[in-house]
Design brief:
Layout (H helix, E strand, L loop, with lengths): L2 H29 L5 H40 L3 H15 L2 H17 L3 H31 L2
């Protein structure tokens, strides 16, 4: 693996973990009685950026290396199910995560101007979904990486 691919893979992982962490901070702010709107919207905006950056780095890694070098090894090994279940699931879920993060951020702007408890509950559920899906994608990546060993 070339140094560029290593940097790309490590960037994908670190950006994704940071994005999930920021999404979690947004969720924690939404669960508070009094939300710090400016801080929460800023953190949510950064999570959107980081999710898209992780998305871009993963796309490069997948196209240049994973599809031709790692995927065949996994599919030919004892843990072919890791790719079939977890990588396929990860690929499909990860397509919506950056847009879900963007939706949460836009919803926070609306919620700041209209602090309706029902709306806050809905945005909290959306943020919870974002964190849960992000964790699923991260755990799936760990499982797939283990299957490649």
């Amino acid at each position: 693996m070339t140094p560029l691919l290593i940097v790309t893979l490590v960037s994908h992982i670190l950006l994704g973990i940071a994005a999930i962490g920021l999404a979690h901070l947004v969720l924690m702010q939404l669960l508070r009685k009094e939300t710090a709107w400016g801080w929460t919207i800023g953190i949510a905006s950064w999570s959107v950026f980081l999710f898209f950056a992780s998305w871009a780095t993963s796309a490069y890694y997948y196209v240049v290396y994973y599809g031709s070098s790692v995927k065949p090894v996994i599919k030919a090994g004892n843990y072919a199910w890791a790719h079939t279940i977890f990588m396929e699931g990860k690929e499909h879920v990860f397509l919506i995560i950056p847009f879900l993060a963007l939706t949460v951020t836009l919803a926070l702007h609306v919620l700041k101007k209209n602090p309706d408890p029902r709306l806050k509950f809905a945005v909290t559920l959306l943020a919870s979904t974002l964190v849960i899906l992000g964790l699923f994608v991260a755990i799936s990546g760990i499982i797939v990486s283990g299957a490649a060993q």
